[in-house]
Specification:
This protein has five helices and five strands; from the N terminus they run H-E-E-H-E-H-E-H-E-H. By secondary structure, it is α/β, with parallel strands linked by helices.
């Protein structure tokens, strides 16, 4: 919901040159929310590998950083940084849409 809100009219991340794309081959950054489950570890690696260099990985929220309440769960592989290298962590549970936009603006320089 917060990512959707960040791109909705109130916060309008697109006015800063930030766009959501459908394919990792067209993406400069990968935004990952929540902990990585065992079933999603392989797809996350494949998505990361499909992105062109230079690429950024953003861990969105506290659960993406350290698994939060899901830590030690049966199906949890680990945090995002346990699976792929993370460049930026946006804190919060969940992060406020304005915090998401401000962090993403750091990449565009706008």
């Amino acid at each position: 919901m917060e990512v959707h809100s960040a791109f909705a009219p109130v916060y309008d991340a697109e006015r800063f040159g930030i766009r959501l794309v459908a394919s990792p081959r067209h993406a400069d950054a990968l935004l990952v929310t929540g902990p990585v489950t065992r079933n999603m570890s392989d797809p996350l690696h494949k998505t990361y590998d499909a992105m062109p260099e230079p690429r950024l990985v953003i861990a969105l929220g506290d659960c993406a950083k350290d698994c939060g309440v899901f830590k030690g769960g049966y199906g949890v592989e680990g945090s995002v940084s346990d699976v792929v290298p993370v460049d930026v962590h946006i804190p919060g549970c969940p992060p406020h849409p304005q915090a998401i936009v401000e962090a993403l603006r750091g990449f565009t320089g706008k």
